[in-house]
Amino acid sequence: MYIAKRMGYKVVLFIHGWHENVFRFFETESKLVTFFLREMLSFPDRIIVLADSFKNTLMEFGVGDSKIEVLPIMIDYAKYSQRYVSRDTSKKYVLFMSNFFKDKGLYELIRSVPLVVPTRSVENPVRFILAGDGPELRGANDLVRSLKISDHVRFTGYVTGEAKYGLYKEAALFVFPTSHGEGFPTVIAEAMAAGLPIIATRVGAIPEVIEDGVNGIILSKPDEHEVARAIIHLLKRPRLMRKMGKLNREKAKDYDVSVVCDRLVKIYDEVIA
Known about the structure:
Blueprint: H1 2-6, E1 12-14, H2 20-29, H3 31-42, E2 46-49, H4 52-60, E3 68-70, H5 77-81, E4 93-97, H6 106-116, E5 127-131, H7 137-146, E6 153-157, H8 161-170, E7 171-176, H9 186-193, E8 198-201, H10 206-209, E9 216-219, H11 224-235, H12 238-251, H13 257-272
Parallel strand pairs: 1-2, 2-3, 4-5, 4-7, 5-6, 7-8, 8-9
């Protein structure tokens, strides 16, 4: 960025990920690093972040309000919304989709399964589909076997395209109990566009798009007991689930690639004007 500015170019910095503790660390642990970070943030003509809370953190770090733009993640809304159907939630499943890392909430969700299953009748069971791949795939499979819940849990591996859209279409709700340093998780926007109620944590941009009790449930902490309580609460209330799903589907229109790109082009136009 420094070289670009020295050469007279306009610079737009898009911070796509986020971890709140990074800025706190710089402020408390290293004055030299803090100085260089502040200098680096002074170079761009605009800084784009994914959430208002991220903008507030940058402003606390000394970046001017007018320099920061908030722009959400973008998705192809039609690919998910066209597959939306009026769901018979009694015959669907709980969906988790992510890279399989420890801090994505994978193990917490698996440990919640034995707590949820007994609350359902034989005629109306609950299933869990875990979509994704990563270093914790073997450990997740081992945990499922040790808990003797293999009949209730299915691993799909990494999915994309029609297989991915199909999973969203057939799900009853989406669970993402992450403690990872998230920005605006793409899977949250995708699940919203597909018309799913969402159970997630207060991480990154999530609490700005999921209002607890309105279009989903925000977990107070990502452990198996909280996850299980939230799942049981929603599965017992299909009307509430449908209402949440419709709200999410409508809200996700703002994340369509055409809408976000229009806003991005306007930012570029303002910068180069």
